[in-house]
Write a structure and sequence with these properties.
Length: 82
């Protein structure tokens, strides 16, 4: 999803409605929890083979576990909703 897609989607909702995000809690009952969004910020992600999904990275920290080469080549600048 792109920022414009999110903007377009949100236009159809009440601007006074609270915003939550959802994820699987990982319990026996496979509960989906939905905490409130507390922040929106720009960040960077890179693919994590261990997690099998993108992970947040701090470009000021060294990429100790990464393959040789320029680690910033595999970094995407994104909008984070948390």
């Amino acid at each position: 999803m792109r920022v414009q897609d999110l903007i377009d989607e949100l236009k159809g909702y009440d601007p006074e409605a609270e915003v939550h995000f959802t994820y699987g809690y990982g319990d026996h009952w496979r509960t989906e929890v939905a905490p409130k969004v507390s922040e929106v910020f720009g960040g960077c992600v890179t693919w994590s083979e261990y997690h099998r999904m993108p992970k947040l990275v701090d470009l000021d920290e060294e990429f100790e576990d990464e393959e040789p080469g320029n680690p910033e080549e595999n970094v995407s600048r994104v909008v984070i909703i948390g």
